Amino acid sequence: MEDGRRLPRSAVVDLGSNSVRLVVFEGRGRNPQAIFNEKAVLGLGRGLVSTGLLNEDAVEQALTVMVRYHTVARAMGAEPVEVLATAAVRDATNGPSFVARLRERLPDLIIRVLTGEEEGLLSADGVLLGFPDADGVLGDIGGGSLELVELAHGRAGRVMSLPLGAIRLAERANNEIARGRAMATEEFNRVPWLPEAQGRDLYLVGGAWRALARMHIAQTAYPLSIVHHYVLSREEARDLAGVVMAATRRTLDRMPGAPTKRVQDLPWAAMVMRRLLRASGARRVVFSANGLREGWYARHLESEERQRDPLIAAARDLADRFGRDPRLLPALAQWTAGLFERESTGDAALRVAACWVSDVGSHDHPDYRAEHAYFRILRQPGVGLDHHARAFLALAIALRYEALPDAAFLQAARVLLDVAAVRRAEILGAALRLAYTLSGGTPELLAGTALEREGGRLVLRLVEGSGVFAGESVMRRVEALGAVLGLEAAVEVAA
C-alpha cells in the first residue's frame, strides 16, 4: 500500500441501549487486534419502557458521535465499516426514523438492526474465538436486553432474547430490586433448555458484568487485571452479587474498581447474574471480554483461520512481531519434546507455545529483556489464553532470559500457578536458555544438537564440526537443566 501499511483494517460500531462504541481492528488473524476503541455512554434506551421511544437527547448526541466514528474509521483506512444496532433501536417506535436520519447523514455507512437471535449468535461467535470449546450457556447483557445462547462443546445452539437489560429491567421494576427479581425469575422460566447447564459453565458478556469482574479483581487483589478468562466459582459469584445488590449508591461509588458511569446499573446486573446462576445451575462464571464486536470480526475471517488453535495463534503472532527467525521455533518444539515424562496434551500445547514466544525479547535492552518479555507475554492481547497459560508462558520465558528466580516482578505468575506448573516452567526456561546458547537463535546450529533423557541421565548430544561445542557456558547450562530435572547431566560428541 502507498502509506506503507500492510495489514487490512475493519471497523464496527456497537450501537447499544446504554453506550455506543467504535472498535477498529487491524489484520485478519485468529486473535483480534483492536487498534482503536472509543465509547460514549449516551443512554439511548433510557425511558424506552415508559415512552416506547429512544431518548431524544441521546438521539442527537448519537448522531454527532456517529459522524465522528465514521470519520475516524475512514481516516484510519478501515473497510468495511459497519454499525450494529441492538435492542433499543429495534424496539423503539422511532427506531426506524433514527436509522433513516443516520443514513441521510452517512449514506455510505452499512447499518444493521439486529434481531435478538442475530445479536446472540454474533456474541456467541465472539465468545468462541476466545473459548473454542465453550460448554454451557452464554449470557450477554446490555442496557435493553439479555441474550442467552446454548453452547455445546464449541458450538452455538438455541438462542433466547429476554427483556432483562439493566436499564430496561430497572424501569420495568420501577427501580425496586425485589420486583425485578421476580421478573427475572419469570423470564428465565420461559427458557426450557436453561436447566441443562447444570454443572457446566456460564459465560458472561457485557459491560455491566465486566464491571462486576473488575470490582472483584480490585477487591481481592488478584494479581492480573484482565477480565477476559477471569473465573469465579458459583459461590464467589453469588457472594459478589449479594454485596453489590445490598450496597447503597454511595457505597458502590466508593468500591474499588466500580465504574462511575455504570454504578446505577450494577445492582441490576448483579441481580440478573444471581438469578441466572440459580436458573441454570452453572458451576462457575467465566467472564469474556469478547462478544458482539468480536463476533462481527470473526464473521470476516477465513474458515481456516477461525479453526486455528488460539493458543498457538497468539504465540505465533508474538513471534512474528518480536522474534528473529521463525524457522527456529518449530524446531525448538521438537527439541524439547522429550523433556517431560507423561506430558499431558495441555502441557504439551503450553510447551510448544513457549517455544514460539521464546525469542520475543530479542530486540529489547539486554538488562531488561527478562522483565520486558515477561510482561509482554503476561499481558498480551491473545483472546484464547486463560490466566494460567499467560502466567506459565511469561514465567518460562523470563527464566529463559535468566530472570532471578525470586525477582519481585515474577510474583504475579507464581501466585497464578501451582507448584507443578512452576516446576515445569523452570525446566522449560532452563532448556530454552541452553538451546539459544547452543544455536545462537538459528535452526542450522540447533540441528547439530539433541537433548535426551536416558534413565537417570540428561544427555546433550553434539555433532562434531556443526558449529557447536561444549564450552563453559554450555556446560554450565546443561548442568543447570539437569539439576532442575533431578538428573545427572552429560555431554556426548559424535563425529
TrEMBL record:
Positions of the Exopolyphosphatase C-terminal domain: 311-488
Protein name: Ppx/GppA family phosphatase
Ranges for domain Ppx/GppA phosphatase N-terminal: 24-303
Classification of source organism: Bacteria, Pseudomonadati, Pseudomonadota, Alphaproteobacteria, Acetobacterales
Origin species: Roseomonas alba
CDD domains assigned to the protein according to its UniProt record, in alphabetical order: ASKHA_NBD_HpPPX-GppA-like
Pfam families: Ppx-GppA, Ppx_C
